[in-house]
């Protein structure tokens, strides 16, 4: 069935192919070949052109007439540094030599999907219709999944492999998030000669900031100003201040009402001081919250049970392609891959987790 050596070999081969966001061509070509060899109908969509990258989403379909349609997805791009990755195996763990990320985020997910497909082919295992999507540009704003025309495939359930933690961890909730700049335009003036003819943008911002909600707004909602920039010299009344703002909530409604309230306060305070408010905050991705007894969650829990893997449902603090697929109406969960310390030079993955994950996928297709 699942072959540890084969998974490891495939994983090592893939992590050695650099694939920074919008530059996934090499790994994309590699995956097109692999999927074709495994007998899938392979296409590449126009996500690359749409988003200014050199590779689209790679889509493979393994037909099964009259059966349910399952989406299995992982992203091809990795964060930097990833120009040269030298993976090292040590004590059942695959890590880097400390000069790059490993790229287990998300090539661990890709490796498990490929192993599942290999076992299906070898053992002629009965399966639902399987749609595999290897997405581009996930790390820089979920670009591939946003562009992917999922409605063409009438998917029943989505299984996205892109979470840290041990296999068995099922992300059923993730926040919606908004991010961008809030700018206050005051008026410059000589701070010593005619301060009264200026409007200090920082003073205006300070008044607004004491009135808006920041930090943990409620159990599901957070907001933060992370960067403040403005000013030229001590003798100039500060004309402009920019605030880098973000807000997240597990509830789309709560996020929207928080944003509305925040913008309204900035607008009002700016008016009071005669300043101008510019708002460039956008909702980056919508959140999702699946019920415990939702079929897609149940399928994974039962799959884990059959291979004696402890399962748990948790909510995540970040966004993934899963957010986009749920927002497009496909009930989808994000599954833990075993990747650890992702987005750092200490990133590693346990070989056992890659094996467990592949076994889990082979159980999921029975559900
Ligand atoms: Zn990822």
Question: Could you characterize the architecture of this molecule?
Answer:
- The protein is an alpha+beta fold and 367 residues long.
- It has two domains: 4-174 and 288-364, 3-Layer(aba) Sandwich (Aminopeptidase), CATH 3.40.630.10; 176-285, 2-Layer Sandwich (Alpha-Beta Plaits).
- Helix content is 32%, strand content 27%.
- It is built from ten helices and 17 strands.
- Strand 10 and strand 11 (221-230) form a beta hairpin.
- The radius of gyration is 24 Å and the shape is elongated.
- The two termini are 18 Å apart.
- The model has no long low-confidence stretch (mean pLDDT 97).
- The structure holds zinc ion.
- Zinc ion binds next to helix 4.
Keywords:
5-stranded antiparallel beta sheet, 2 domains, elongated, 9-stranded mixed beta sheet, alpha+beta, 367 residues, Aminopeptidase, binds zinc ion, 32% helix, single chain, Alpha-Beta Plaits
Strand and helix map with partners:
Elements: H1 4-15, H2 25-37, E1 41-44, H3 47-51, E2 58-62, E3 69-75, E4 88-90, E5 93-95, H4 104-123, E6 129-135, H5 143-147, E7 157-163, E8 169-174, E9 176-185, H6 201-209, E10 215-218, E11 221-230, E12 240-249, H7 252-273, E13 276-285, E14 288-289, H8 295-306, E15 312-315, H9 321-327, E16 332-336, E17 348-350, H10 351-364
Parallel strand pairs: 3-6, 3-7, 7-16, 8-15
Antiparallel strand pairs: 1-2, 2-6, 4-5, 5-17, 8-14, 8-16, 9-12, 9-13, 10-11, 11-12
The structure holds zinc ion.
């Amino acid at each position: 069935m699942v072959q540890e050596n084969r998974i490891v070999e495939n994983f090592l081969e893939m992590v050695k192919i650099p694939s920074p966001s919008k530059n996934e061509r090499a790994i994309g070509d590699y995956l097109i070949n692999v999927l074709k060899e495994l007998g899938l109908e392979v296409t590449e969509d126009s996500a690359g052109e749409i988003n200014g990258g050199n590779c689209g989403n790679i889509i493979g379909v393994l037909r099964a007439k009259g059966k349910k349609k399952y989406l299995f997805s992982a992203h091809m791009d990795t964060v930097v540094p990833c120009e040269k990755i030298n993976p090292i195996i040590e004590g059942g763990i695959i890590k880097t030599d400390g000069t790059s990320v490993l790229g287990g985020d998300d090539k661990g997910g890709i490796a498990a999907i490929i192993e599942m497909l290999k076992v299906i082919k070898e053992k002629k295992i009965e399966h639902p219709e399987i749609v595999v999507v290897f997405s581009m540009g996930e790390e820089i704003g979920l670009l591939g999944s946003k562009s992917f025309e999922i409605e063409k495939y009438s998917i029943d359930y989505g299984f996205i492999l892109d979470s840290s933690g041990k296999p068995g961890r099922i992300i059923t909730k993730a926040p919606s998030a908004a991010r961008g700049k809030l700018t206050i335009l005051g008026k410059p003036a000589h701070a010593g000669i005619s301060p009264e003819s200026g409007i200090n943008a920082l003073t205006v911002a300070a008044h607004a900031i004491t009135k808006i909600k920041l930090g943990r707004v409620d159990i599901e909602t957070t907001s933060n100003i992370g960067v403040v920039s403005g000013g030229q010299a001590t003798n100039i009344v500060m004309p402009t201040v920019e605030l880098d703002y973000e807000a997240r909530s597990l509830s789309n409604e709560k996020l929207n009402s928080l944003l509305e309230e925040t913008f309204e306060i900035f607008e009002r305070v700016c008016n009071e001081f005669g300043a101008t408010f510019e708002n460039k905050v956008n909702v980056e991705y919508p959140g999702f919250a699946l019920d415990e007894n939702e079929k897609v969650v149940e399928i994974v829990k039962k799959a884990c049970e059959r291979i004696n893997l402890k399962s748990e449902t948790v909510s995540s603090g970040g966004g993934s392609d899963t957010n986009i697929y749920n927002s497009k109406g496909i009930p989808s969960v994000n599954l833990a891959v075993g990747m650890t310390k992702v987005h750092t030079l200490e990133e590693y993955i346990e070989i056992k987790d890659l094996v467990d994950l592949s076994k889990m996928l082979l159980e999921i297709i029975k559900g």
